[in-house]
Amino acid sequence: MIQSEFRYAHHPEDVKKYTTEELRREFLIDDLFNEDKVKLVYSMYDRLIVGGIMPFSKALKLETIDDLKATHFLDRRELGIINIGGKGKITIDGEIYELGNKEALYVGKGSKDIIFEKVGHEQPYFYMNSAPAHHAYPTKKITKNEAEIVELGETKYANKRIINKLIVNSVLETCQLQMGMTELQVGSVWNTMPAHTHSRRMEAYFYFDLEEGQTVSHFMGEPHETRHIFMKNNQAVLSPEWSIHSGVGTSHYTFIWGMAGENMDYGDMDGIKTNELK
């Protein structure tokens, strides 16, 4: 079963006026994982689709949705998947790929039959991003050993973290989709601080590995007009091109970042000094 919804883009002047409820309704994505369901959110921000797939008692097929006006989901799209649960498998047009915890799969444009399943008694949780594509690049599995890994931050600033670049142009070719995973170390809670913006690509953040009863405050908005959204484990948030995207947790956590847009250069961004945020 597929559940899908559609989200519009927003002008920053409008977002300044949003209440907490309105902000959460427009940008927060919760309830991503439900037994034997595919949940998809189609965003007008670079037409990124954010989704969660949880095959529990049966295999689940990624079918097209009305908003795509396409015969198959990937007729004009590419797809990135990261498994945050137990071992699972994904069958792409008859070829099987097994994904363990924190392993990724890139699926190229034109793939037709995409099926998600459990392996044994383990429960996989497949988090996915999809963006429009102009070219068919090969499907490829990426493990953490194949990722480009960068260690950033300092203990004294509570932001020591490991960035795993999984689906990026330094690891494999894609049209525009970029995905990776940032793991905060024990005792560190801040991500993407100092903050930045990048007007030629949007992002979606998915927070997980958060202890029961803890929370992450995700910061967004223009640098001089920030807003925050308190988030629970296994929730995602959309980040417009004009917005910062940063967070702080009441304990350490992991998050997946996904990007779409014309800018493929990971380091091309406009930094904001921490003491200049408002």
Kindly list the characteristics that best describe this protein:
278 residues; mainly beta; Jelly Rolls; 7-stranded mixed beta sheet; 7-stranded antiparallel beta sheet; 2 helices; globular
List the helices and strands and how they pair.
Blueprint: E1 2-7, H1 12-15, H2 20-27, E2 28-29, E3 37-43, E4 49-54, E5 60-61, E6 77-83, E7 88-92, E8 95-99, E9 104-107, E10 114-118, E11 126-132, E12 140-142, E13 148-152, E14 161-167, E15 178-184, E16 190-191, E17 196-197, E18 201-208, E19 216-222, E20 225-231, E21 235-239, E22 246-249, E23 254-261, E24 270-271
Parallel strand pairs: 1-3
Antiparallel strand pairs: 2-21, 3-4, 4-11, 5-10, 6-9, 6-11, 7-8, 7-10, 9-12, 13-14, 14-15, 15-23, 16-22, 17-24, 18-21, 18-23, 19-20, 19-22
How would you sum up this structure in a few lines?
Catalyzes the isomerization of 5-dehydro-4-deoxy-D-glucuronate to 3-deoxy-D-glycero-2,5-hexodiulosonate. The protein contains two helices and 24 strands.
What can you see in these coordinates?
- This protein is mainly β and 278 residues long.
- It has one domain: Jelly Rolls (Sandwich), CATH 2.60.120.
- The chain has two helices and 24 strands.
- It has a seven-stranded mixed sheet, with no helix packed on it. Strands 2-21-18-23-15-14-13 form a seven-stranded antiparallel sheet. Strands 5-10-7-8 form a four-stranded antiparallel sheet, with no helix packed on it.
- A hairpin with a 5-residue loop joins β3 and β4.
- The longest helix has 8 residues.
- The chain is globular, with a radius of gyration of 18 Å.
